[in-house]
């Protein structure tokens, strides 16, 4: 078969592992691959190259994506959808494997509804694509953020400081919750819940009264009702930092982790997840199971209808929120 492959939206660790797995799995079927560059834009503009197993040698452990990526949605551009159809036709593609977050996969769903044969794979450090239990890139982002929290704990203790660390996550707090729990943070500010600065300050002061001289507060960028997303007046982290410094009187420092969370080599878990996704997607293509998303559970890889990605962000489950609530203040 002839299979097109693309990565769209924000990059994350593990994309190359998924590309490598798909190409290797396809080679065992005798498939040929076309790699589209810069996400859907590469399909619309036919910016592509052939992709062979030798092109994917040595990339398993590399961050980023050899195909490059972009946040581009064909249906938002005049003639974009028709251009996708033409490219599929021109390359005589039997299928497209689309690796993306909610935006890229939502575009994939629109095109699948128009008959483009698509299998989707979920990636995003936000971990919020509906329809699957695990998104490529999340584990690496959590590991990176937890390492940062470990480092902030020791410098914070040395200076008796309140350390505020801002992680990504606009609408859901997967990254903040998991970083907070695994990093042993003292408090969290999440998109899921309003933050009461007076209560938060009291919690931090209680912690200090109980003998601690420093605290770590993890803030999701979309906390405080998302009011500071893209704002020129600072970020959620800077707001929390300022408000807590004022109320507690503690010396406070802010660290915004930003794109550090997206770069670098994937963890072993992300390599494994991405490889499972790549192999499953190629199997799905050969089973003619189009308009589907590879859905990964702990012991399973299934296919679910691709339209699930348009049902909204996958929320952090109450059980995990309860663990976070038990272990931290918010
Ligand atoms: O969706 C992934 C994500 O990393 C978000 O967590 C973050 O808000 C956003 O992308 C950042 O996007 P950009 O790279 O365009 O600044």
What does this structure look like?
- This protein is of the alpha/beta class.
- It folds into 2 domains: 2-137 and 266-311, Rossmann fold (3-Layer(aba) Sandwich); 141-262, Rossmann fold, CATH 3.40.50.
- It is 39% helix and 17% strand.
- The strands form 2 sheets. It has a 7-stranded mixed beta sheet, sandwiched between helices. A 4-stranded parallel beta sheet has the order 7-8-6-9, with helices on both faces.
- A hairpin with a 4-residue loop joins β10 and β11.
- It starts with a strand and ends with a helix.
- The protein binds 6-O-phosphono-beta-D-fructofuranose.
- 6-O-phosphono-beta-D-fructofuranose (F6P) is lined by residues 10, 101, 124-126, 168-170, 221, 262.
**What is the count of DSSP helices, taking H or I runs of 4+ residues?**
10
Biggest sheet: strand arrangement: 3-2-1-4-5-10-11
Task: Please tell me how large the radius of gyration is.
Answer: 21 Å
Question: Which structural class do the helices and strands define?
Answer: alpha/beta
**Distinct ligands, ions and cofactors found in the model:** 6-O-phosphono-beta-D-fructofuranose
Oligomer: single chain
The top-level CATH class of the largest domain is: Alpha Beta
Shape: elongated
Helix content: 25-40%
Number of domains: 2
Write down the CATH topology of the largest domain: Rossmann fold
User: Low-confidence parts lasting 5 or more residues at pLDDT below 50?
Assistant: none
């Amino acid at each position: 078969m002839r299979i097109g492959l693309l990565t769209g939206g924000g990059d994350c660790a593990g994309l190359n592992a998924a590309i490598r797995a798909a190409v290797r799995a396809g080679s065992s079927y005798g498939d040929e691959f076309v790699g589209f560059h810069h996400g859907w834009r590469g399909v619309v503009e036919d910016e592509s190259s052939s992709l062979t197993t030798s092109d994917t040698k040595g990339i398993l452990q590399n961050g980023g994506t050899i195909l490059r990526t972009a946040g581009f949605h064909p249906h938002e551009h005049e003639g974009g959808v028709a251009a996708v159809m033409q490219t599929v036709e021109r390359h005589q593609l039997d299928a497209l494997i689309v690796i993306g977050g909610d935006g890229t996969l939502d575009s994939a769903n629109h095109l699948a509804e128009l008959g483009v044969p698509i299998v989707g794979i979920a990636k995003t450090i936000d971990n919020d694509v509906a329809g699957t239990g695990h998104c490529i890139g999340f584990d690496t982002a959590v590991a990176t953020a937890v390492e940062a929290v470990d480092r902030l704990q020791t410098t914070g203790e040395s200076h008796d400081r309140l350390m505020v660390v801002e992680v990504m996550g606009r609408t859901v707090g997967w990254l903040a919750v998991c970083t907070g729990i695994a990093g042993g943070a003292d408090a969290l500010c999440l998109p899921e819940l309003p933050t009461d600065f007076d209560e938060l300050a009291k919690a931090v002061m209680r912690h200090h009264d109980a003998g601690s001289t420093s605290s770590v507060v993890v803030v999701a960028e979309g906390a405080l009702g998302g009011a500071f997303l893209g704002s020129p007046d600072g970020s959620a982290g800077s707001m929390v930092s300022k408000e807590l410094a004022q109320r507690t009187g503690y010396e406070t420092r802010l660290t915004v982790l930003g794109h550090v969370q997206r770069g670098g080599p994937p963890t072993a878990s992300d390599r494994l997840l991405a490889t499972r996704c790549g192999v499953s997607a190629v199997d799905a293509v050969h089973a003619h199971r189009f308009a589907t998303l590879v859905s990964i559970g702990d012991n399973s890889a299934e296919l679910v209808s691709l339209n699930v990605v348009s049902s909204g962000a996958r929320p952090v489950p109450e059980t995990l929120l309860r663990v976070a609530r038990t272990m931290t203040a918010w």
